[in-house]
Write a structure and sequence with these properties.
alpha+beta; six-stranded antiparallel beta sheet; three-stranded antiparallel beta sheet; disordered C terminus
Length: 232
């Protein structure tokens, strides 16, 4: 098991290496790790995840959110951009049709060249999400490919507040905050029970619905599972 000191070292070196040009990253890692093969192996894996191959070329899926607003992906009409990550862009969308109205979050893979490995990772993430069924984890709803062939998946959209902002605005007591924390732990424990770990778990990935202060039930935080992976 990796010790806390080793993890702190790994995090420091990773952040340093990620700021360097791709061709300098491995050299920096090997220099900093010295005779620590465990840290070096973990860091080389992490760096590989943000640079799948030498000569990797990325283009933005689009230059800004405006060109996609009002357009459709599958049966969903794009409302606005929510955010961007290393693998893709996340969009707020609305299900089209007269039957019912539903807001969703769509994650679309970035447009890339020589992207077979990245596509496999994206599809693996989509498959992992399909396995998860927990009240405090945002659900996978749909998936497919755009007209340009870019894979995407559709998830439950949690309209709410970041966890800490929710706690502050509602003046939650220590006991209420602990109940929220236990709900988060329940979701993480459920994923671990399926041999799934979240490699980028932060407070920002937890959102709590605005409309309730009942921390033990419908006020439980919902998590979007970003960058899940099978443990090595």
């Amino acid at each position: 098991m990796t010790s806390p000191d080793t993890w702190n070292k790994i995090k420091r070196i990773f952040h340093e290496a990620s700021e360097l040009e791709p061709e300098l990253r491995l050299g920096h890692i090997r220099s900093e790790c010295g005779d620590d093969p465990e840290a070096r192996a973990e860091l080389e894996c992490l760096i590989e995840s943000i640079e799948p191959a030498r000569g990797f070329i990325e283009e933005p899926i689009f230059s800004g959110s405006a060109p996609l607003v009002g357009k459709s992906i599958g049966r969903y009409r794009i409302v606005r951009e929510i955010g961007r990550g290393g693998m893709g862009v996340v969009l707020l969308a609305e299900r089209e049709g007269d039957e019912f109205r539903q807001l969703v979050a769509i994650k679309v893979l970035k447009r890339v060249i020589d992207s077979d490995q990245l596509v496999r990772r994206f599809n693996r993430e989509r498959q992992i999400l399909a396995l998860l069924n927990h009240p405090n984890i945002a659900r996978l709803i749909d998936g497919g490919a755009t007209d340009d062939g870019l894979p995407y998946f559709v998830m439950e959209y949690v309209e709410g507040l970041p966890l800490m902002k929710y706690c502050t605005l509602n003046g939650l007591s220590a006991n209420e905050r602990i109940r929220l924390f236990r709900d988060i732990c329940s979701a993480v424990s459920y994923a671990h029970g399926l041999l799934i770990v979240h490699r980028d778990l932060t407070i920002e990935h937890n959102r709590t619905p605005r409309a309730t202060r009942n921390c033990s039930t419908s006020g439980s935080p919902r998590r979007s599972v970003k960058n899940p992976a099978r443990p090595r």
